[in-house]
Amino acid sequence: MNATNTPTPRIEDLIARSQMEEDSFAAKIYAVDLPPELTEFARRYEEMGGERDVFLWKWCWDLQYARKPGFMLSSVPEKYRRNAALAKSLLGMAATFIDDVSDTLKDRHLLDAILTIPLDGEGAIPDDLSEKGYLRAVLVRDTLSTAHDVLAAGPRWDEFRTALYYDLKQTWNSFAYAYLVNTHPELMNITESRIYTSHTMMFYIFADIDAVFSPSLDIEEAPKLREAIWHAQQMSRIGNCVSTWKREVRDEDVTSGVVGYGMSTGIIRPADLKAIGREEKKREVIARLTEKRVEENLFQDWEQNRARVLEIGKLIHSVDIGAYLEGIELVMFYYLSSRGKGSAI
């Protein structure tokens, strides 16, 4: 399929569809059956007092496993689809466990300890963690190790693992950045939000995983593919932001691009975020950002990034970028349909 011939619903269409289908979408997600590998980690997370609803894990699995449309690269043959989706879901789970530490617990010592855990799970966990901290670190280690075992069986693991390790570090660094701005909110701005927090979406990692399971992917097209992934990742982060920012502000998490845009344009000021612990200030910040329609500016950014994916896609032939873009629009639909349901990291 040529990318330029792909149906291209605009953001307004996705918003309207999400509003009409919100209830049926939630019912669909809750009806999803998780694979046993994910169910076990979800159970352990819940038992240790994890904050996320099972809706999130089902939401992620349904999205990762989806095809036609789905944002799994078309180069992944059907026989590898489950393994690719499983590896991505496991790493997404691990990232969410870490996100809780940086955004909600704001525990720098535990965060530093967890971020040293390698993908293969080897290495000692520091023995000076609290009991709950140790359990969380072990959960991250076991989730990463399980993902590693799935990935190591992929046909192009040796070829793409270096890129995956690098991209994983970018995501881990995004959590360190989240801790920085949540403890020093006066530093928040839209430019760094786009650079750093977008990596929490893990789109480079997901593309690396698809590449591991893609025998036909042309390595000569990897540079352009990674360019397209950058813009797709920005699109996903915008969806994440509009889905979660009000809940995050109420939770005193100021990492959203909505907040970053408000800070960079003067709609809100550093003093507002320094006082975010007060309930009246939370309501004031949400009201100001809503009144100034900050989401609409982010939607314009979404459209611009979408146009760049289409343009770059003309130079890529071993992956159907048109189909991939349909998958990114599906991601946006999932976010828009999940506002307030704890659907995203």
Task: Give a short overview.
With 345 residues, the protein is mainly α. The protein has helices spanning 11-30, 36-47, 54-65, 81-105, 108-114, 131-152, 157-183, 190-196, 203-212, 222-250, 257-265, 270-274, 279-291, 294-313, 321-336.
Please characterize this protein's 3D structure.
The chain is mainly alpha-helical. It is 68% helix and 0% strand. The protein has helices at 11-30, 36-47, 54-65, 81-105, 108-114, 131-152, 157-183, 190-196, 203-212, 222-250, 257-265, 270-274, 279-291, 294-313, 321-336. Helix 4 packs antiparallel against helix 6 (131-152) and helix 8 (190-196) packs antiparallel against helix 11. The two termini are 32 Å apart.
Give the topology.
Blueprint: H1 11-30, H2 36-47, H3 54-65, H4 81-105, H5 108-114, H6 131-152, H7 157-183, H8 190-196, H9 203-212, H10 222-250, H11 257-265, H12 270-274, H13 279-291, H14 294-313, H15 321-336
Beta strand %: under 5%
Q: Please report the first level of CATH classification, the CATH class.
A: Mainly Alpha
Radius of gyration: 19 Å
Model regions low in confidence, pLDDT < 50 over at least 5 residues: 1-8
Gross morphology: globular
Question: How many structural domains does the protein architecture include?
Answer: 1
Mean pLDDT: 92
Examine the coordinates and then state which fold CATH places here, giving the name of the CATH topology: Farnesyl Diphosphate Synthase
